[in-house]
Write a structure and sequence with these properties.
thiamine pyrophosphate; EC 1.2.4.4; Rossmann fold; 5-stranded parallel β-sheet; 39% helix; 7-stranded mixed β-sheet; 693 residues
Length: 693
Amino acid sequence: MIHPDILLKAYRLMCTAGAMAQIYEANRSVCKYVHSTSRGHEAIQLAAAFQLLPCDYVSPYYRDESLLLGLGFTPYQLMLQLLAKADDPFTGGREYYSHPNYRGPDKPGIIHQSSATGMQVIPTTGIAQGIQYLEAHLAGRLQKGPNGDLPVVVCSLGDASMTEGEVSEAFQVAILKKLPIIYLVQDNGWGISVSAEEARVMDAYEYAGGFPGMERVRIDGSNFEESFDNMRRVVQYVRQHRTPYLVQAKVPLLGHHTSGVRKEFYRTAADLEKHLADDPVPRLRQQLICKGITEAQLQSIEQEAAALVAGHFSQAIQAPEPDIATVGDFVFAPTPVQEEKGQRNDSSLSSNTSGKIVMVDAALFAIREIMEDHPEAILYGQDVGRRLGGVFREAATLAEQFGDHRVFNTAIQEAYIIGSTVGMSAVGLKPIVEVQFADYIYPGFNQLVTEISKSCYLSCGKYPVQTVIRVPIGAYGGGGPYHSGSVETTLLSIKGLKIAYPSNAADMKGLMKAAFLDPNPVIMLEHKGLYWSKVPGTEDAKTLEPSRDYILPLGKGNIVLKASEDAINRGESCCIITYGMGVYWAKAAALHFPGQVEVVDLRTLYPLDEELVFSTVSKHGKCLVLTEEQQQNSFAEALAGRISRHCFRYLDAPVEITGTINIPAIPMNIHLEQAAMPDPEKVKTAISRLLLF
């Protein structure tokens, strides 16, 4: 039996949500930003919200305003986001209505919520995986409820999003790992103008039946009492049994899809009438009357809700607009790593007769030290676990040392590998993950673009994603079209990510440490051809191992070869701006021009050491930007343009660019590979052209 106070609270909030929808509709010119309301979905949303504790996490989707009211947010707070006001408590005027995020002691945690359909399912499942890790291995860091309640995670989504492939990836992990997560599917039968019959062969309940181990229930989500009883039972079950559950709640859609895509555009009068028959508000009203609540009491609740909403709306309209000076705030959280520290060349760490280590070992040693010092650090990806330790042996021995719970394999799920770091980071873990080859990072781009890169900015700094994403990259020796690609330009087009690209062992270790300590997402591009220095001319990629405390800040380039002052003074010098394998092509080519070539290794592509680049170019007046990527429309071309603008008055020649020819993939045949890509001879030719000016 549900206590009458709960029923009255639910009715009050339903009336509040209804009044909000009405006032938005009546003030369309004021409510100019696109928005959706929860009309028709109120019962299941409130029923879910009423079960949650501050130790829990929930990911609402864009129609979940009633869920937010049920958690305790006020109409005024929600309206500030509706109107994109400065005091919007979630995103400071940067996000759509009902796209919350929250950290606080009084309500469940809410990570950044995007509009990309279904994309919240992987990050939210990552929260559940992180909670499970804390529960088993770092129990002192696990937040519990007032009675020792274990936290649960609720991921709310619409029925149309169930056809997204990333939902399946999340389900697979949730069941495999037995995660404490509830997938609340609100099924109104529509995906904008696409009906359920047009879009799928089964509903969410039937779909979940194909995932053995997924508990499931189908309920009438327009009946508050049924919804409340089921959500109470499901939440308690997951708190106790720590296993995933899917709730399919059938609900009517009574409002517009959004304020811009209106129901009369595509729905028939008969369809609207059918949905209206299941309106949860009059259903609960009638139930209250049957329980002895008087008409006068209900009318009083309705009037009070309308007055509250009108007052809050008036206040929200008068609230200040955001200060335009803040538009660039919160792209990144501040990093504690600001300067180079520790001993770069520590001969005492020598483990071989030469005293030097290869790059792949530098990364391995850095991660080993990180995991020794930080129990919250975990490493996962395809084939990185105990049996293989990575296809390049880049994680060898780590599982043996730290256990399969901290170093583990995943399925072939690039989206989950990348997107789960959002949830892991939110609960205080620090994931290091690997995409096996750069060519295979593209399935993870949805998560990189919609979730990871935007999280800090759109949460106003509440949820930066602290993760290191390792990506073996580059071509050598016939790797072929799907194991040789360079992807830095594509990655750099995503704002909100940091990109490192070390070219030697010392830089690898120092940058890996800095990347881990950075509270933002950092992608480590690691050239496979430099891992062991097996490519002729790359012996200098081996270095002495830096000390344990060595840290190299992101955004600091390095002059790896200096030109002579005499050549510079005579105007007979040039500089090469490059990174990765380009460093070794440049140094090899420079041997033919003693003292005339200065080589800058960028080391980090974002943030970029513009000060070093511009000062070096200005000193020489002649510049070559060298890249392994296909040249046209590349980062290298963009950098050359930037150099031309900033250094125009110092240039004695146009900025040269050398890169791979403009083909869609690197060919398998080693002779074709060599013909397509830069090499020392091609760089030598470019230098010769520059020095003629």
